[in-house]
Each structure stands twice: as structure tokens, then as C-alpha cells.
Amino acid sequence: MKGIVILLLVIATTLALDYPRECPSAAEEDPWHPVHLPHPTDCSKFYKCFNGQKHEQVCPAGLHWNIERDYCDYPEEAKCVRPLPDF
Fold it and tell me: What is the pTM of this model?
């Protein structure tokens, strides 16, 4: 059982590392496909990139940012792990 928990934590950490960490420059932005970044310490927050800058957003009450699906989701679906690991 302990091995399964460790494996799940490794998978969650790997998923958390597979996302952009910085906003694209204003010239590189695609308004039809906005970039969202997870908040490094708070599961209920995320950043929306606009004009090369990140702007903090808050999920509705009771929801967490889902890195994999790119939207606010139920905590059991988002499987949020914070703080995010550094690389």
C-alpha cells in the first residue's frame, strides 16, 4: 500500500512539472488559446497570461485548478499537490 502511495505522488509530481512556468511574450500569445499557469502554493488559484504578464485568478469556492485539464475542477479530480516542486 505504501508503495502505491509513493507511486501516485511521483506521478502527481511529474504531471505538475509538465506545464509552462512563464507567460509567452505578447507577440507569441494566441488570443484563441490563452495560457494558464498554476499557482505555486495555492490550489484554488491560477494565473491567466495576458499581454505577456500573468494575472492571478481565483477558482470558484470549493474548486481547485486542474493543471491537466486547464480549468477549475473538483478537488478529487484536480488532484492538486502544493507547493509545486522546483526544477
Answer: 0.74
Q: What is the pLDDT of residues 26-83, one digit of tens each?
A: 899 898 999 999 999 999 999 999 999 999 999 999 999 999 999 999 999 999 998 8
**Domain membership flag for residue 12:** yes
Range(s) of the domain holding residue 2: 1-78
Sign, CA torsion 11/85/48/73:
positive
Q: Concatenate the DSSP letters of all residues of 5-50 into one string.
A: HHHHHHHHHHHHHSS--SPPPGGG--TTS--EEE-SS-TTEEEEEE
Residue 84 domain flag: no
Nearest to 36 by CA among 66, 64, 81: 66
